[in-house]
Amino acid sequence: MTAHAYLQLTLFxxxxxxCVKPLGEYLAHTMEGQPVGWNRFGQPIEQAIYRxxxxxxxxxxxxxxxxxxxxxxxxLGVLMMYVLQRLQGWLPLNPQGFGAVSPxxxxxxxxxxxxxTNWQSYAGESTxxxxxxxxxxxxxxxLSAATGLAVAIALIRGFARHNAQTIGNFWVDLTRSILxxxxxxxxxxxxxxxxxxxxxxxxxxxxxxxxxxxxYPQVKLDSAGQPMRDGHGQPVQETVTTPTQMLAMGxxxxxxxxxxxxxxxxGFFNANSAHPFENPTPLSNFLQMLAIFxxxxxxxxxxxxxxxxxxxGWTLLTVMAIVFIVMAMITMAAEQGGNPLFTSLGIDxxxxxxxxxxxxxxxxxxxxxxxxxxxxxxxxxxxxxxxNAMHDSFxxxxxxxxxxxxxxxxxxxGGVGAGLYxxxxxxxxxxxxxxxxxxxxxxxxxxxxxxxxxxxxxxIILITPLLVLVGTAITLMMATGKAGIFNPGQHGFxxxxxxxxxxxxxxxxxxxxxxxxxPFYNILLAIAMWFGRFWIIVPVLAIAGxxxxxxxxxxxxxxxxxxGLLFVVLLLSCIIIVGALTxxxxxxxxxxxEHLIMTGK
Amino acid sequence: MKTLLxxxxxxxxxxxxxxxxxxxxxxxxxxNLMFPQQVAGSLLKVGDKWVGSxxxxxxxxxxxxxxxxxxxxxxYPYNALASGGSNLGPLNPMLQEVITARIKVLREVDPxxxxxxxxxxxxxxxxxxxxxxxxxxxxxxVSRIARxxxxxxxxxxxxxxxxxxxxxxxxxxxxxxNVLRLNLALDQM
Lengths: 601, 189
What we know:
The complex is a heterodimer of chains A (601) and B (189). With 601 residues, chain A is mostly helical.
């Protein structure tokens, strides 16, 4: 790792940690309905929204009602997203005249954006109208993040309350997070991104006259539109020359801001945050990275604050930070180390002030190795899935880290809300295991962890490995599945494993060589995304409901502390052991073998 | 379920309007007021003609110009309607094939230059639209440009120096050279 790498990592973590307490406290007050700061100005709007919706803000829901509201609201989102994509050809704000998105791709995209996955089987600039990008994709970026946050807050209430029947009101949680958290933050970030060069317009695609005309070979077509063939049956090539480059346009900045802050990750353009119009400068890149971790990190503090012991939140954050920093260092070192192939071809890949060096295939010059590898680690640790470099072209170890971070269940910071409820599930597992070891009834924050909670925890921990491993196996047994693979050998296997891991854990990044825009992948991965999201959310809410109804026992000399070094080690071990036991065999077949082949030459 | 339907539909419609229409329009308004040039794509004009965007690279194959990063977009490089990378894995034989071909082309137009080629000059960028190359990649091409344009190498070297952008605020990102801007300046010499 270079000095530049250490500097970036330190700067990033430093700034992130500075934001944790103020934002975490703000979030706690906001979600509990205590007006702070500019929230007061939003009160009339908030009340008007409740009146229109016939919502009584004081009436709370039990966990079943809460879960029903979450599912209904998100089903509605899938339906509207699907309809919008299918009808976009007849709707306004479509200067390029894009027709309807194919049914399977539209279904995949609808589920993808509603589940906060933002897996993209389409290419934005050649598929989606501006209206679909705004009214479909941008809206779901907000709503899916708000859903995740609401569920996390409901679970926090489960810990904080005692002998209570209810865990909050989903409509109120949704409304407050959008009005007071997401909208102000995205507006701020969008303005800063525009200052750096992120575009925001409704213009038709802009033609420019290139300095040197573009010539390229193309297969010549006959009058029937079929390729012309020469005497040997080979297609006839002709050289086409064009003086024009067409620049894709659109309202990008507004979508970009929530794409990062909501840990969504769905790019306006195909190249996502590698595209200069989405992420034009190193500063915009740094802010995008910070935006991904901002809310998930702050939520740890919110948790501690609301359960009345901030040490609990810091403990979770410490675990997240340790895993993240180690992983980031491995990725940066692997990518900086580069590919032995390049050296054997006589290419200079050593880092010095005049070049980033390392494995630059699939990376942008302005980001180099450090900002690309760091971004890749952040986007997969959190369930964001935006990319500023192509993970498919990473070195085997550089690609293994993002893949494994996804497979850990998106609990290292994780998605907005999803990261916190994910790591709290592991915390319950950790106290359960510790309880077994010392022969006492496990307790977390004074709540007895009993059979019902542990059943739910088991359901949550088992669902994603089931989807990922069975899904990968099925895909590899079917010709339609294997047809999508782009790179040969172990790398092709990793492409499929990555796709299922990304979908089931709601990440959304890809080893993008995989041709996933086929009915086979679109439908199966959509199913994985849906169950990977709601098969977890419903049991989480069940745990919240069960915990809320329990007494909160007083801490005694006999209770195990769930803060401090011992618990950090315990929780860390739980996450790593579950993640490793589940996925090491599959990882060994993919990136591990590939690494051995690459370095063995 | 019926008691849930009204709030669900109402909130969905309200938030769609708020986050899907009002918010993007508000951002557009602010952008047009504060950063009119950036939000339109940072376009560059020569005379009365739009010649490109300072953020989007263009393909250069003429030895008289500095070349940018290889681009994997289809059907032609730097197609700004189809951004993306090559997605070639590190061990894919295709990767070796395309890189070897790029090295060959670079060596052919500049046979006297025996320095090792900087990595970014032979590897495809992530977006396929990368507007920059590293200072090393620019300096590697100086002798070729000087010969083809019949300029003193020092003159070209000076121009490159002027166009090196250091890391932003000295800490973020990498040093880089904007290829399109550099070539436009070269044409004006």
